[in-house]
Amino acid sequence: MKFLCVLCDTQMKLEETTGPVEGSLSVSFACPSCAYRIALLTNPWETQLVRALDVKIGGRSSPAEPWEFVRTMLAARREGALEGAGDVATPEEGAGPRCPFSAVANRAAEAASLTWDPSAEERLERVPDFIRPMARQGIERFAVERGYTRITEEVIDEVRGTLGF
Amino acid sequence: MKTYWDIVGDGGSNVAAQVEAQTARLRGRMAHVRRKVAVVSGKGGVGKSTVTANLAVALAMDGLRIGVLDADVNGPSMAKLLGVRGRPLQAGPDGILPPEGPMGIKVVSMDLLLASDKTPVAWHGPAQQESFMWRGMMEANTLREFLADTAWGELDLLLADLPPGTDRISHLTGLLPDLTGCLVVTVPSEISHLIVKKAVSAVRDARWASALGLVENMGRFTCKHCGAPEAMFPGGDTRAMATAMGIPFLGSIDFDPRLAAASDRGVPFVMSHPDTPAGEALTRIARTTLGWVEGV
Fold it and tell me: What is the pLDDT of residues B188-197, one digit of tens each?
């Protein structure tokens, strides 16, 4: 993906990468000619796709550690499976220079601990395909923020009442 | 106004260079591996992984330096079959040192990392329900790291045991573009033959391996009462299918319940029962395969 300042017909340059915050990564670009700035904001699924590619937005500051990707991305690993390896920030361990996506993973871990009642799942199925992932994320975020561990029809009603879904 | 192709570079992330660095790492590692052979099957349950493990051991017994990549990320079995399950991986200056199985066979499998018998492979992500969208990329990158970051050392042969089916073949075609050979394992049943043809076509369509060969598993069994060999499955003529598809038939392995028992114990059958019909067939197929890939 490349960004062009249409007024100057000049390629915009990456300035800053921040986040992710709640799964969204913010990447700022500026036009070197007129200094016009824009920001690319990803949703959690776009962020995850970038992670799955095993490339770093903004470039790498150091060479990859052996098996860095699998060590970082595997959700549950056997203790002591890998001896003598340097630390690679796992998502649970928080943000670090090699793992700029910890917030996404932390949210994922929280969401993974939620259970959906079949009736709630059924309600979600009625949401149109193209916005269903976003609706699911919104409901799960709402539940996590309130300390709920189960998503029921009542929770969905509460989300509708609060957020106007 | 400029188009995408008028602009050089990607504005700062240099993704192309990151991917090139990954590729260079993989290429450098694989330069020390003389031959690479993938083992595939169209159908699950045909004994592909058992065949892979025993071929690896038979060739190692002949003095070859062998590595085994368990490319079945979600259903890994090579660590169990080669008796290295639960053994730790070691980080060394040249990469991750894999555990060594019988005859010094180096084994890399997702099973070595999983938390318990019951732990499935799960990835961090925004929601597991939508993981089908990115799971394939996770698996492909895992295999790339297994190949590129493992201290395989100098190998005469690397055997890659793929999951059943044709959908994951594409994960390895990009990673091992110079694959020497591809072994296709089947049982002599019509249903297995039907699906194996698709696997052969998938490998051919991808122009992946220099050569394809067919191995029949569970061809016959010996009646324990009269000692006569009998067909395990009705109907399927694997040799005829190989001829019809224009690929070499590399041999048939008799069904032997002791082979399954040895696999469960992590003891290679070719070592524990070398003089049985199945043991002899595995050794013969291993040597035929070696001659076949050496001739490619």
Answer: 999 999 999 9
